[in-house]
Amino acid sequence: MMDCLFCKIAAGEIPSKKVYEDDLCYAFYDIDPQAPTHFLVIPRQHIESAAAVDASNSAVVAHCFEVIAKITKELGLESFRVVSNIGEQAGQSVFHLHFHVLAGRDMTWPPG
Ligand code: 5GP
Ligand code: ZN
Question: Nearest residue CA, atom 17 of ligand 1?
Fold first, then answer.
């Protein structure tokens, strides 16, 4: 998608601090970290949010979770939180599906 920040980051058109990449997804550190470790995992394919996941794109989403398990293992993170905000009221500010991975501090529940 032309005017999407995360499509541009995944394509390398906007710089980011890469954590991992493959053909289907890209992972990079959040510019405004909310925990000692905070990175985002995104599909390269433009999907607006988790509400737009269907049979045509769910394999890519499953792959993102495989990648989350792999990266967190490699980083030695035994406890972490995966968050995806859907819609403005839930706090979504970038409308390209992304999974926040947060670790390195105590987490509260429920999230605010
Ligand atoms: P959301 O608010 O949609 O759940 O999450 C979007 C996230 O993207 C935020 O945590 C925000 O800090 C991060 N973000 C926004 N713009 C950039 C950017 O240009 N580079 C990086 N690395 N992260 C960004
Ligand atoms: Zn996009």
Answer: 31
- The alpha carbon of 92 and the centre of ligand 1 are apart by a number of angstroms equal to 9
Q: Give the torsion through C-alpha atoms of 54, 79, 18, 74, to 10 deg.
A: -110
Cα 47 to ligand 2 centre (Å)? 7
98 is catalytic: yes
In this predicted model, what pLDDT tens digit does every residue of 81-111 receive, in sequence order?
999 999 999 999 999 999 999 999 999 999 9
Name the nearest CA neighbour of 3 among 46, 54, 32: 46
Q: What pTM did the predictor assign?
A: 0.98
Protein residue with its CA nearest to atom 21 in ligand 1: 31
What is the percent of the chain where pLDDT is above 90?
97
Q: Which structure tokens are listed for 60?
A: 């890519």
Question: What is the arithmetic mean of pLDDT over 3-21?
Answer: 98
Query: Is residue 112 exposed (0-12), middle (13-18) or buried (19+ Cβ within 10 Å)?
Result: exposed
